[in-house]
Specification:
By secondary structure, the chain is an alpha/beta fold. The protein contains 18 helices and 20 strands. The protein is 46% helix and 15% strand.
């Protein structure tokens, strides 16, 4: 196909006069027109060229225009098709539309109507191509490996992953629980020259301290009760690959000392062993704690902190990347619908709106669990607001001053008067801030009388 800016149209008609008329009319409009006198020639031309639009008579001398249309669809031809005929029945028109024809025009047709129909068809095709290209670009940008999101904070993280993956520097990933820190560590590994080697993830807070040293560094037979054989540790298992130390802030000070040696010298000593074992590993750590504060408090070694904290990647909580929520929710919907064998394809706009009003303290992990439960419980092919496993309009928490009050705490007993006073103090304080100290205006903002506001503030010593 010779590329041109003008749309290419194939006219298929067994009447010479009609072909000549259409050639004249359409060429004047700036289209590049090709002519075929029968269905077989049309199919040969379609095999050789990619036309933008086909204008085809239903009744031809050899095969019908409907047969041409069906053959085009079987071969996945993308040309938009408009059928024309002086003799076609309503059934022919319906069949043509059912096989993908854009429109049907009976002969004799008005030239103005024909030109308008062709223009609309080509405009629609252009829009479809643009949408497809945009969707493809968005889909490409929404994913980085198994990470989902194209919000500005995530795009920054993708850039960091590309940069740091080419180095062997230790990396510390920080962020709240459930934000996807392990996915980022795995993406760094997969982008690096170690991608074909092991990626070993260790949850430092999920293994009892008595067993953790053995899990990390291995042990020798007889080194402790139950050590019936030599065992390789996870550091040795990850040789030439990457070790991901999740929740590094949970390590005891004793283990921090032993980890420091492994980080500095790239050697380990199995429990009960006498010889050092060299390991070629890259270390990526993660924590939901503020390690600087842990260092100040004496809970984390300063020397280890600086060894691990060479490059820091801060992962934002879900509430700070709400533009990614729709893509994340759809990803989890597709995953669990497939796993459960359910034909659920969509989350309703209203359900998405409801999700976006929630701040997800459990982050992506909480969203995933929510969608999984919703898929399991719903009986329709769409997730509706009522299908959500958590009723967000019944908020599970309310804000106080610098903290939340979890309604589930009632089961353990609460002091209602203290809670109400703290909430009241917070609202009055905010109203006074907005009113710039004007009590009358603050009272209006709160919907109470001036005397009532004065009395409440006096009682609370405000």
């Amino acid at each position: 196909m010779i590329m041109t800016q003008s749309p290419q149209i194939l006219v298929v008609d067994d009447e010479l006069s009609m072909r000549e008329l259409l050639d004249y009319v359409l060429s004047k409009e700036g289209y590049v027109v090709s002519l075929a006198e029968n269905g077989h020639n049309a199919l040969k031309m379609l095999d050789k060229n990619d036309y933008d639009l086909v204008l085809c008579d239903i009744r031809l001398g050899d095969i019908s225009g409907l047969d041409v249309l069906k053959s085009m669809r079987q071969k996945n031809r993308t040309a938009t098709t408009i059928m024309i005929s002086a003799y076609a029945t309503a059934e022919d028109a319906v069949e043509a539309m059912n096989h993908g024809a854009y429109d049907y025009l009976p002969k004799p047709f008005d030239n103005k109507e024909l030109k308008q129909t062709i223009k609309k068809a080509l405009d629609l095709k252009t829009l479809a191509h643009e949408k497809q290209a945009l969707d493809s670009e968005l889909k490409k940008n929404v994913h980085f490996g198994k990470i989902i999101g194209n919000s500005p904070p995530m795009m920054h993280i993708y850039d960091m992953i590309r940069q740091v993956s080419k180095t062997r520097t230790n990396i510390l990933i920080t962020g709240e629980s459930g934000t996807g820190k392990e996915s980022i560590a795995k993406a760094i590994h997969d982008e690096s020259d170690r991608k074909d080697q092991p990626f070993v993830a260790i949850n430092c807070g999920g293994i009892p301290e008595a067993l953790l040293e053995s899990e990390l560094f291995g042990h020798k037979k007889g080194s402790f009760t139950g050590a019936a054989y030599d065992k390789k540790g996870l550091f040795e298992t990850a040789h030439k690959g990457t070790v991901f130390l999740d929740e590094i802030g949970e390590l005891s000070l004793l283990l921090q000392v032993k980890l420091l040696r492994a980080v500095q010298e790239r050697v380990i000593k199995p429990v009960g062993g006498n010889d050092d074992v060299p390991v070629n590993i890259r270390i990526i750590s993660a924590t939901n704690k503020k390690l600087e504060e842990e260092v100040i408090a004496g809970n984390f070694r300063e020397d280890l902190f600086y060894r691990l904290n060479v490059i820091v990647i801060k992962v934002p909580p879900l509430r700070e990347r709400k533009s990614d929520l729709r893509a994340l929710a759809q990803h989890f919907l597709d995953k669990y619908a497939r796993d459960m064998g359910k034909e659920i394809t969509k989350i309703s706009t209203y359900a998405i709106d409801l999700l976006e009003k929630y701040d997800f303290p459990g982050n992506i992990r909480e969203l995933e669990n929510l969608i999984e439960r919703s898929v399991a419980l719903t009986s329709t092919n769409i997730i509706l607001p009522d299908s959500l496993a958590i009723s967000f309009h019944k908020r599970r928490w309310i804000e106080g001053i610098g903290r939340r009050f979890d309604l589930d705490d009632v089961a353990r007993g609460v002091f209602l008067e203290e809670i109400l006073e703290e909430i009241e103090r917070a609202y009055i304080g905010k109203a006074m801030e907005i009113a710039e100290g004007n009590k009358k205006k603050a009272a209006e903002l709160l919907g109470i009388r001036y005397r009532s506001l004065w009395h409440r503030m006096d009682k609370m010593g405000m």
